[in-house]
Amino acid sequence: PHAIGVWTVYMTGYGTQNRRPPDPRLQIIQLNKNSNGMGLSIVAAKGAGQSKLGIYIKSVVAGGAAAADGRLAAGDQLLSVDGHSLVGITQEKAAEYLVRTGPTVTLEVAKQGAVLHGLATLLHQPAYNQRQAGAVRRASERDLPGRL
C-alpha cells in the first residue's frame, strides 16, 4: 500500500519539567439550600508557592444541598460565596460568609484546587495546625452547621 499526498506531522515535547500544571476548571455553582443546609466541611490551607490562604472543601456531607446537587467535591477550592472573596481569609471568616447566605447561594469554585496546590493529602488529615517535614501548613476545619 502506498499513500500519495502531503503529510504533516505535528510533534510536541515530552518533557514536563518546565510546564506549569493546568489551571483548575472554574465553575459558578448556584445551590438551593435544603432543610439540612449546605452540607460542607471546609478547611483553610496554604499550599507550597501560595502567598494567601485558600478555602477548600474537606468533605461533602450526605443529606445537604451540595450532596444533592452533586457538582461539589472534596478538594474543590471555594473562591467566593455570593460575591465575597474567600481567598486570603481565615476559615472562621469564610464560615461566617457561608452561614450568612440566603436560601440560594452562588459559589465560585476551582475544581480540584487542592490537588493543583499540592494539598490533596490535607483532606485526609485531622483538623488542627500541622507541622510536617519542617513546613508549616495552617489548617483548620469547621463542619458548617445544618442550618446553612
TrEMBL record:
<feature type="domain" description="PDZ">
    <location>
        <begin position="28"/>
        <end position="113"/>
    </location>
</feature>
<dbReference type="GO" id="GO:0032880">
    <property type="term" value="P:regulation of protein localization"/>
</dbReference>
<dbReference type="InterPro" id="IPR001478">
    <property type="entry name" value="PDZ"/>
</dbReference>
<dbReference type="GO" id="GO:0050839">
    <property type="term" value="F:cell adhesion molecule binding"/>
</dbReference>
<dbReference type="InterPro" id="IPR028842">
    <property type="entry name" value="Afadin"/>
</dbReference>
<protein>
    <recommendedName>
        <fullName>PDZ domain-containing protein</fullName>
    </recommendedName>
</protein>
<dbReference type="GO" id="GO:0005912">
    <property type="term" value="C:adherens junction"/>
</dbReference>
<dbReference type="InterPro" id="IPR036034">
    <property type="entry name" value="PDZ_sf"/>
</dbReference>
<dbReference type="Pfam" id="PF00595">
    <property type="entry name" value="PDZ"/>
</dbReference>
